[in-house]
Structures are given as structure tokens and as C-alpha cells.
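Morning. Coffee machine broken again, so started the prediction first thing and wrote up yesterday's gels while waiting. Chain of 229 residues, entered below exactly as on the submission form.
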Amino acid sequence: MRIFNHCPFAIWPGLLNNPNKALPENGGFYLDKYHTRVFQVPDGWAGRIWARTNCNGAGHCETGDCGNKIECRGAGGVPPVSLAEFTLDGWQGQDYYDVSLVDGYNLPVRIEPIQGTFRKVSNSHYDCNPAGCHADINAHCPPELAIKNSGGWTVACKSACLAFNTDEYCCRGAHNKPETCKSSQWPKNYPAIFKQSCPDAYSYAYDDTSSTFTCHGNPKTGYVITFCP
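Came back before lunch.
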């Protein structure tokens, strides 16, 4: 894995392993602007990566905070955050990866397989191509979803589920399957705000068909996660 901070400011990447998977880099670190950090994950790794912003010396972060510490050590980031998600060596040795805005958005992010480490098996848009969200959703986040800092600037944008906690927006209860969790049944189509800005990223829980990317390694795919691509 390679994390590149293309933002004009420092970030603090956070990493969280899925159950029974290794935790890379103790779960988090500082990354200066325009710098890269490279690390290894074991075969079959699964987890998520996000960026924390404006952290202080005590480890408290304006967005994506994982409990007032630089190394998250198994704690997830407080949403809203943009997530880079991975399941490596899955079905038939295939990697699965996506950028998720299901829990909201804080920074643009891209996942890209590294040339020479993968083999395409189709001409599909979702076969070993970059996944991500390049747009600045904070710039047009609706006021009822916006997270503002002390200076009044929008620093993150909540999902409708996070903001309103209803079964419709959270795809739960009677709405816990694709047939019953869809825009035609929502009071307002907030996920469309995310989807129109970032068509290749998850905007709600059942947004799989236009958001999940796959790749086969040659022999193992390396990935670059770029914040502010």
C-alpha cells in the first residue's frame, strides 16, 4: 500500500482492520503535504483507510478523529469521513476496493492499482481502474448536513443516515434490502448529491453496482491511495 498526501496541508491517515485481520502501522500516522508513506499488508487483508484533518498535539482531530490519539490502534474514525475500503484476495483471488461516502465525506480520495502489479481480465470500467471521489463536496454540502469548524468553514458533509438516523436513509428495518432502500422511497434524495459529484463512489449502502471495483494481482496488486487527487 502507498498513501500519497496531495493536499496542500498535512493529514493524519487512519487505518482500521476488519476482524481477524492485521492492523497496519498501529492504525495511524502523520503525513505531511505532498509526502508519501509505503507499508505492507498481508495476503487476504481487509480494512479501511481514511484521512484525519487538523489534528493537534494531543491527537484530537477536526475530522475523522479516532479517540484523541495519533495511532488509532483499532479505533475507527468518527464520521463523516471519506473511506477507502479493501478486501484483498477474495473470491477466486480477486481484490475488491471502493471509495465509500456512506458515512459522509471529508476529503477527496482516489484508489488506483499500481501499473505492473495487476492483470485486467475484462474491459469493464470496474476492472483495475481508479476508484474515487475527486469533487469538493464540502463546497456545496446542504446546511443540514454540513459540519463547520470554529471559523465557520464546512470541513465535512454528513450522510443523510448520519444526519437523520431514519430507517429509510440508513437502509435498515423494512428498508434493509436493495428493493426497499432506494431513492424513490426517500423523503429527499440526499445520496444523489454525493453520487452526482462522485459517480464512482458509494453514496448509500446498496450502491454496489456502480461503486465496487475489482482487480487480479500479477501476482499481487499494489495500490496507491491519494488524498486530494
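The CA atoms of residues 2 and 171 lie 33 Å apart. Going to sketch it on the whiteboard this afternoon.
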